[in-house]
Structures are given as structure tokens and as C-alpha cells.
Task: structure prediction
Amino acid sequence: MTDSEVMLRRQAQWQKDRCSLSWPEKIRMAERVRGSAERLRDRSNRARPQTLSLSGSAPTAIRRRER
Amino acid sequence: MKELARLLNEMQQAGVVRTYALFGATAQMRYTEPVATLDADVLVAVASEDRLDPLREIYDFCAARGYRAEGEAIQVGAWPAQFIPAFNPLTVEAMEEAVPADFDGVPLRVVRADHLAVIALSVGRAKDWARILALLESDSVSRKAIAELAARHGLADAWQWFQSRFLND
Result:
């Protein structure tokens, strides 16, 4: 078995082991994941206008709407 | 979730809902490994089903306790809760036959694994197929139980299709 296969097998086992956690613990885990996802989304939303401004002009769709 | 459990029990005691049951991903996690989800889905039997806005009393009850609506959901503690009136015989049965669970000492009604699987079968998005597979893999439901429940709710063909696509070798 290659190292990658061993790693994949270990990861699968780790995921399966999480089934045996208590339901409240699994819910709290999901809350943490959701919190992280929201923070990432907020960050990318904040970053997007900066990226647009670097292009020097508004994207086509916005220019059309402004006309 | 504990806060949502308390609120749901209060709602039932006050007669705002006749009964309720948690379903969707938060219910699934009772049986499988944790999954990512944005909100908590709750099936409800409202007291006044014939109204044009059957959820009005729920929203009013929540607002009176300081829980505000955000889009389609009501923010309760960490969870945006979506209230969905049971809308067909399958969801009514799932809600009525939900099992009492315990969330950190607070009772909370949760849809059974077989009902979760068959509701997922009836909805049929990619994440619903994944839910059925996760429930089967965790041994919280058998193929036989899903087949029987699906047949009873006119979903035998859907189950056949699912089996041929995802389960048959």
C-alpha cells in the first residue's frame, strides 16, 4: 500500500469515527465550520471591489447598467 | 441548538404549533458524521393551517421573544431556523413519528433516519443523494426500511432508480 493510500484510509477512518461523537458535539462542530465559511465569504466579498478597481474600469455588466 | 430546542418546546406548550420535528442536515447529524449546513430546518404543524400566512403566529411568537426574521429564517442563537409546515403525507408522518432526542438536557423532537432518507429521495438534489448514502453507511437505516417507506409514499420507482445508480455493483 502506498503512503497516499495509507493517508486516505486513515482520513476515511477519522471521518467515520466522528459518527460516534455525541449529537450535540457534532452540531457544535457544524457551527464552527459554518462560522469559518461565513468569515471566508465575508472576506472574499470585501476583497472583490478592490480587485475590480485594479482593472481601471467597471466590468461590462455594471457599465451597461449605468448607461 | 439548545436555544432553538427550548423555543420549539415553548412554542408547542403555548399551542402555537401542535407539534414539530427537526429535519434536514441538523437532524441527519444525529445519525451520521457531522456535515456542513447553513440553517436548521424544522417541520411544524401549525394551529391554523387554513390561513394564508400559516407561519404568522410562529413569527409573532419569535418576535415577542426578541428573535428576528432574516430572509426566510428566524435567527435563534447560532442558528437561522427555517420553519416549514408539513406539506404532504410523507412529511406529516415524519413529523408525527419523530423521536424524542436530548440536546444537552433539553428535549428535542427529531425526524427518524428512514423518514430523512425518503424525504431526501423525494427532493432529489445531489446533497439529498449524499444524505441517503451517509445514512446507509452509518447503518442508521436499512435498504429494506427505505424501500418499504418509499413504496408506501409512491416513491418505489425513485428508490429503484437510486439503487441502480448508486448502490448496485
Q: What stands out?
A: Confidence is low (pLDDT under 50) at residues 53-67 of chain A. The interface with chain B takes residues 15-16, 18-19, 21, 23-24, 26-27, 29-31, 33-34, 37 of chain A (CB under 8 Å). Residues 22-67 of chain A form one domain.
